[in-house]
Specification:
With about 325 residues, this protein is an alpha+beta fold. It has helices at about 5-15, 20-30, 55-65, 75-90, 140-150, 175-190, 195-205, 210-215, 220-230, 240-255, 255-285, 290-315; strands at about 30-35, 45-50, 65-70, 95, 115-120, 125-130, 135-140, 160-165. The chain is globular, with a radius of gyration of 20 Å.
Length: about 325
């Protein structure tokens, strides 16, 4: 799988005999969103394409009628005991931690919202499942895992571990899908601030023009922003590839012209987001403000395309 939270959720569910594709996990969790975030204490603006960490997990549990058991503590020892109790009981456990401390992580960037599934341990190492990009089934030293779980900062949690218990009879596919579509569309179409949802994409279109002046190292920061959009665990196109594929699966279950329209629009949006990432990278590499002007125009178009898609999904959900 390509995204950390859906990867971990897939492990927990498969252990209980529930097989769902990664796009379906992402979509049922109403994972799609958008945020443009910038502040004086940030080195460079952040473009996010999904809901905040762990919100997807809570949403998915609700859609499946599953019991989500979450444990958090300020005590490292108690936090470890919580993990050991689940694994010694023969089950995998989900963990939220800071990826920058993990031995196997290819990019030593601190991100406190990273989520993995843990399935075993010995005297020296913990055995985890992470994304394909990070190696799939991997191991890290117990000391590095302890550091990752104890980290503090943006999006971190206090030694958070969690399990999912699914009911014997899951809701029908239609009963799972329609609430997920409704919740995602409502949040996207009615954001509380102008940095979120379709309004946030408009904001990004206005602000991206200034990005060469926003950094003292455009050759570093702009390509890095583009790389995160395409390769940073998003599944490509800032999570739009995953949501496009989710809508494609939904269209096999629900016969709706509006749903097919939304699927077509998100296929278009995915292509446009990849174009934005390429323009941003090119602007940084060449120092060319004209690339950012073109990216701004594409972002304005994206705001319209995604707004129309979400309006169609709101109608599908009733």
């Amino acid at each position: 799988m390509r995204h950390c939270e859906t990867t971990a959720l897939g492990v927990l569910l498969r252990h209980q005999g529930v097989e769902l594709s990664e796009p379906m996990l992402f979509g049922l969790g109403s994972g799609l969103s958008f945020i443009y975030w910038d502040s004086k204490n940030m080195g460079f603006p952040f473009l996010g394409g999904r809901v905040k960490p762990f919100q997807l997990t809570m949403n998915l549990a609700d859609r499946l009628g599953a019991e989500l058991s979450v444990r958090e503590t300020a005590s490292p020892r108690r936090g470890w005991d919580n993990v050991v109790a689940v694994i010694d009981g023969g089950r995998p456990v989900g963990l939220q931690l800071d990826s920058g401390h993990l031995d196997y992580f290819t990019a030593k960037v601190h991100f406190g919202g990273h989520i993995v599934a843990m399935y075993g341990y010995d005297d020296h190492d913990a055995y985890l499942v992470d994304t394909d990009q990070q190696g799939g089934a991997v191991s890290t030293s117990l000391s590095s895992l302890a550091e990752a779980r104890a980290a503090r900062g943006p999006m971190t949690a206090r030694h958070r571990s969690f399990t999912l218990d699914v009911p014997r009879e899951l809701p029908s596919p239609r009963e799972r899908i329609l609430p997920a579509l409704a919740a995602c569309a409502e949040a996207f179409l009615h954001p509380p601030i102008a940095n979120l949802g379709y309004r946030g994409i408009e904001t990004a279109g206005d602000r991206v023009r200034t990005w060469l002046r926003r950094t003292d190292d455009p050759r570093r920061d702009l390509p890095q922003a583009a790389l995160l959009m395409e390769k940073g665990g998003t599944g490509g196109a800032l999570f739009r590839n995953l949501y496009r594929d989710f809508l494609g699966e939904c269209a096999e279950v629900i016969d709706s012209g509006r749903l097919r329209t939304a699927h077509r629009l998100y296929a278009e949006a995915a292509t446009l987001w990849t174009r934005v990432a390429a323009l941003i990278a090119e602007a940084g590499e060449r120092g060319d403000a004209a690339c950012l002007e073109r990216a701004a125009l594409v972002l304005r178009e994206l705001s319209r395309v995604e707004r129309e898609a979400m309006q169609a999904l709101r109608q599908v959900a009733g």
